[in-house]
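Take a look at the protein record below and tell me what you see:
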Amino acid sequence: MGSALPEGEPAPDDGALPDDVRVDPGTDFGVYLHVPFCRVRCGYCDFNTYTASELRGARQDQYADTLLGEIALARDVLAARGALRPAATVFFGGGTPTLLPPGDLARMLAGVRDAFGLAPGAEVTVEANPDTVSEAVAFALRDAGVTRLSVGMQSAVPHVLHALDRTHEPANVATAVAAARAAGLDVSVDLIYGAPGESLEDWRTSLETAIALKPDHISAYALIIEDGTKLARQIRRGEVPAPDDDRQADMYELADGLLGAAGFEWYEVSNWATDAAHRSRHNLAYWRGTDWWGFGPGAHSHVGGVRWWNVKHPAAYAQRLAGGLSPAAGRERPDAAARELEQVLLGSRIREGIEIADLHLPGRHAVASLIADGLVEPAAALHGRIVLTLRGRLLADAVVRALTD
């Protein structure tokens, strides 16, 4: 049911921003809509999601109306500060958003459109389990205003899917992609590598299968073992092996090579797209530190340098909104040092990189050794930017330490 919420100061019951916060109207505004429902809990997942037996009084069929209440609150909060802006991106994440009827997702998107407006050419993404997507669903999403479907493929190999507790049929990934294409939607597929028992050849099979689907975008994430998950407990008991760092590095290099040869370009450490137009603009907004409001239980938001997070359980979330209260559980305002560290941490992960001039003097002095170690592209550094090489992407944490120590 998700990791613990951060520590922070109490959030006001009306959701208002601090009086001294100034919101730049020129900053892009994104919307994240969290749908916290899953049919089963995957063993590796620590997202804030709930199966039917864990809802304790919350109802899926009432969820859209509940979330619309938070959208109305957000509109009032932002309007009071003159900070209303059309949404440049909207992202339905989860959980499994497509467990809800397409009509519920359409009403949620209409609520965003009515409250904030959608910018011309807005990117609207829905995450989907392959088993939940048919042509009827894809066309309904398209008609509602969705532009992009992100399909949770994870692997093409049955025993790897089993190790991850994924229940979808591998063949249904192609069915979901075909349905999205028939509806005229852009398509992304998500992969995970490093599962217990997954060989390099298994991973090659998954990559080649994903490439053959001809999506616009592929994400490939290394499996991370999160405390409190079923998989963490299995590893602790010695039932399955922990991910091997060297094997995961080999898998990453294989992914980058195969994807590059197939015409995909990396634009973030774990993300590749066929061209710049098909990069995930919503996720880029996170990495660039722009403004977004996250709606739903456990969702996080960031506006004008203020961050806050909602109560986790759907029942508590619904109860607060029914009482006319903000669902925010706490908030924080990172200081200048924390913001600078995050800028390096996130900015160095994307292809455009970060400005050397924005680094403190020790960080600027570290650039030459990073180039010598093959971690930073020399040509980009000559033009004043830190851009990671393939080796640098594999050792991104070490690069960040060198630039910020």
Q: What stands out?
A: The longest strand covers residues 118-128.
